[in-house]
Amino acid sequence: MDNIFCKNLKEARKLRNLTQKEVARELGVVESCYANWEQGRSEPSIEMLRKLSAILSVGLDELIDTNR
Q1: Which one of 24, 26, 37, 44 has the minimum C-beta count within 10 Å?
Q2: What is the rounded distance in angstroms from the CA atom of residue 59 to the CA atom of residue 52?
Q3: What are the tens digits of pLDDT across the range 10-60?
Q4: Rounded to an integer, what distance in angstroms lies between the CA atom of residue 54 and that of residue 13?
């Protein structure tokens, strides 16, 4: 993923007033795993992208779209 995904992910989380810890708990991953996605250190799987989309109430295209 690129920096745009990281930025979009963080923005979507903040719009929902969720902490990294809360999102990680919903996903069933440790907080550091989720934090690494926001920081661009690692990438979520397709399955996790789908779950993120549902938890954050955004479409997948909104997370990965570079034209937001």
Answers
A1: 26
A2: 9
A3: 999 999 999 999 999 999 999 999 999 999 999 999 999 999 999 999 999
A4: 11
Phi, psi (rounded to 5 degrees) for 38:
-65, -30
The CATH architecture that domain 3-57 belongs to is Orthogonal Bundle (1.10)
* Secondary structure (DSSP) of 19-59: -HHHHHHHHTS-HHHHHHHHHTSS---HHHHHHHHHHHT--
How is the chain split into domains, by residue range? 3-57
The pTM for the full model equals 0.90
Whether the CB-CB separation of 66 and 4 falls below 8 Å is answered with yes
